Amino acid sequence: MKCPVCIDGGDLHKFVYGLPADDFDFEKFEVGGCVVYEEMPDYRCRKCDWRGTKAELKRIRKEKS
């Protein structure tokens, strides 16, 4: 998926929460940490560092279309 902020080259990576296993794919996913609360982001762009939830992503994409 493409980043809603830097559409021209930012790729979104899904956060995975908890302690990563030895075979965790750091290239494909983001480590979100062990402390989880209600408004945690679902995605992060590694280019611009945008972080957001699925709902925010849908809202931004809807506004831009």
What does this structure look like?
With 65 residues, the chain is an alpha+beta fold. The chain has one domain (12-64). It is built from 1 helix and 4 strands; from the N terminus they run ββββα. The chain has one helix spanning 54-64; strands spanning 12-16, 29-31, 43-45, 51-52. 9% of the residues are buried.
Q: How are the elements arranged and paired?
A:
Blueprint: E1 12-16, E2 29-31, E3 43-45, E4 51-52, H1 54-64
Parallel strand pairs: 1-2
Antiparallel strand pairs: 1-3, 3-4
Structural class by sheet pairing and helices: alpha+beta
The structural domain count equals 1
Q: Sheet with the most strands?
A: 4 strands, mixed
Number of strands: 4
Helix content: 10-25%
The N- to C-terminal Cα distance equals 16 Å
Oligomeric state of shown chains: single chain
Basic shape: flat
Given the structure, what is the number of helices?
A: 1
The residue ranges in which pLDDT falls below 50 over 5 or more consecutive positions are none
- Compute the gyration radius: what is it? 13 Å
Succession of helices and strands: EEEEH
Strand content: 15-25%
Strand order of the largest sheet: 2-1-3-4
Provide mean pLDDT, rounded.
Answer: 89
